[in-house]
Amino acid sequence: MLSVYDSNRPGMGRREWLRIGGLNCLGLSLPGFLSAQSSAAPGETHDLTFGRAKNVIYLYLSGGAPQHETFDPKPEAPAEIRGEFSPIDTNVPGIQFSDLLPRTARHADKLAICRAVSTNDNIHSTSGYWVLTGFPYRGANARFLHPSDWPNIGSVVKVLKPSDGIPFSFAWLPEPIVANPGVLISGQSGGFLGSHANPDRFTCEPHAPGFTVREFQLPGDVPPLRLSGRASLLNQINGHFRDVEHTGTVRDFTRQRQEALGILTSSKARSAFAIDREPSQLRDRYGRGKWGQSVLMARRLIEAGVRFVHVQWPREPGDLSSNRPTWDTHADNNNRVKNVLCPQFDVGFTALLEDLDERGLLDETLVVAVGEFGRTPKFNAAGGRDHWGPVFSCALAGAGISGGQVYGSSDVNGAYPRTGRVLPQELAATIFHLLGIDHNATIRDPTGRPHHITNGQPLYQLLGTAPATLARRTATGVVPAIPDFAPIYQKKTG
Fold first, then answer.
1. What are the tens digits of pLDDT across the range 148-173?
2. Up-side HSE of residue 40: CA atoms within 13 Å toward CB?
3. Cα-Cα-Cα-Cα dihedral of 130, 131, 133, 135, to 10°?
4. CATH no. for residue 467?
5. Residue 418 pairs with which residues in a beta bridge?
6. Cβ contacts of 254 within 8 Å, gap of 6 or more
């Protein structure tokens, strides 16, 4: 089932082509060109990457993925810190990931890994707010949505660079971020930009057998043409209200209604959600679980022209327990990451990178994978890792990202930044830059007061139009068969 609701509330530039066209006459080989490019003036590099991304797929690892068991293993740390898993070599010399990510290790050449992202905040709601908006939380209670909240990064994109040719710009699936049942935390709305900047939130189960988008199935007696006629009549009525009262509330309502109607009547929008049109083999590659199929849905949405797609890590059966929901592994960390979390991420993430690359979409799509924080270096008495905001990892790939590099480092225990600390506002500025939105741009609050969309600078160290290195090696690690995630759904419904 899928429901749409409103919660509370370009390729190579000419300059680059000219440079490449002159390679032969200069007698410069490709490796030489890449080396020359890396030493280009910073402003020139920035110009080449500005606006490289047409779309963003934002993979949010809700709960906080452990840095030690993903992108920042610590083999030299004591056993009570490094855990039972080992590092493996990626396909880029000198870069290692956890052996729980063997597929991802084979795609390190596409990735820029930030190993020293930091909020110093161990609270899901407030640390998550900072990651999702690029601004620290300043309100009274981040466990609820407030009209005064800073807008989500996707909401800013929706307002400043909306989609072309499809009636929604910021899609969110398969479910909202829920602190507790019914409690939506701050950072996932349009905030002070108004409800029209909220994501078009689709609560869905694309992995379910016979999945359909119920809201796109019009009643038999209401074809799209007749629906448009009814919409015309409703527009006249709404026009009367506008004549009577010119309030922001009325304007917001009208915009929301028009957007909802556009989604309902758009054949392109309906088609984007028709996941059953994908070959069965491809669906298998993504993993048949809720998260993997949502990631596949994200690819379909950006292919249809949606500008920004947020894929929320979902709560699977048993995840409502207090000690291990989503990536929040307060207990039994090793079994959770080994048998549930990392396999799903490893399968879905790499399938997305491969799928985008095969379709020629990776060069124009920015992929971001990040959670609200990391996990504690030391295991607790329950065999879990607790909340840890001082340092965690983030992975970026695609348009404008110079793959095959690690930026920043944590200390020997994976506890604190050692070099290259990254703040969430810098990630936000990087996203804006790659989308062709000036990070110094402003948006206005309901009083008309302007605000800079971020106070961070883009991470220019991560950007480029070529890999960070051409050196390659064979990745190690054992790649198992794709797990059958279908039983996860069956347990829920059986």
1. 999 999 999 999 999 998 889 999 99
2. 23
3. 30
4. 3.40.720.10
5. none
6. 238, 242
- Phi-psi map region of 427: left, alpha, beta (phi>0 left; psi -120 to 50 alpha): alpha
| Residue 242, in any domain of the structure | no
The pTM assigned to this predicted structure is: 0.84
Residue 232 has pLDDT above 60, yes or no: no
Domain that holds residue 113: 3-8+52-213+273-493
Q: How many residues does the chain have?
A: 494
Give the model's confidence band at 246: pLDDT under 50 very low, under 70 low, under 90 confident, else very high.
Answer: very low
Cα–Cα distance measured from residue 119 to residue 117, given in angstroms and rounded to the nearest whole number: 7
Model pLDDT for residues 74-108, shown as the tens digit of each residue: 999 999 999 999 999 999 999 999 999 999 999 99
**Is 259 a residue whose pLDDT tops 70?**
no
Assess contact for 342 and 192: CB atoms under 8 A. Answer: no
| 47 assigned to some structural domain | no
On whether residue 135 sits in a domain, the answer given is yes
How many domains does one find in the chain? 1
Residue 45 domain-assigned (yes or no): no
CB 355 within 8 A of CB 282: yes
Contact 114, 396 (CB under 8 A): yes
The amino acid sitting at 488 is: I
